[in-house]
């Protein structure tokens, strides 16, 4: 993936401080950052919450890049990366499945498939967290359409954690 590092200034990198402070991520124990790219968000979460463990799940080349970044950050004992595709079965058993800026560029059917995969992996005890930028600071005008999509995937919105221009939707299985 030559040049990837030079071409990406991701939203998770820009929004990580807001996302980290929006929720008590440390209470989860284990998280999987589905489509987590270079690991920026996971690294920020692991740095802030010393008891948290996590993995980035992304395509093989991206997962390898994330693993190297996590290792370089000195977090290999609590973090790592898994090569995979969010359209396929996801590793089960984590308490939280993060979807940061993953759904916005997908059509409804693909977004629904990704949400269902996360819901299956989360089971009854886990949660899915959809992290998206909203149109206006604190306005959350975009959330009704996303809520309908979430519900069509068999999930319900348990809570919305406001982080200014960023909303963290906490979802659970019905």
From TrEMBL:
UniProt cross-references to PROSITE patterns, sorted A to Z: SAM_OMT_II
Superkingdom as given in the UniProt entry: Bacteria
Keywords recorded for this protein, A-Z: Methyltransferase, S-adenosyl-L-methionine, Transferase
GO molecular function, one term: O-methyltransferase activity
One Pfam assignment: Methyltransf_2
One of the GO biological process terms: methylation
Ranges where the O-methyltransferase C-terminal domain occurs: 14-144
PANTHER family, sorted: O-METHYLTRANSFERASE CICE, PUTATIVE (AFU_ORTHOLOGUE AFUA_4G14580)-RELATED
Protein name in the entry: O-methyltransferase C-terminal domain-containing protein
Species of the source: Actinophytocola xanthii
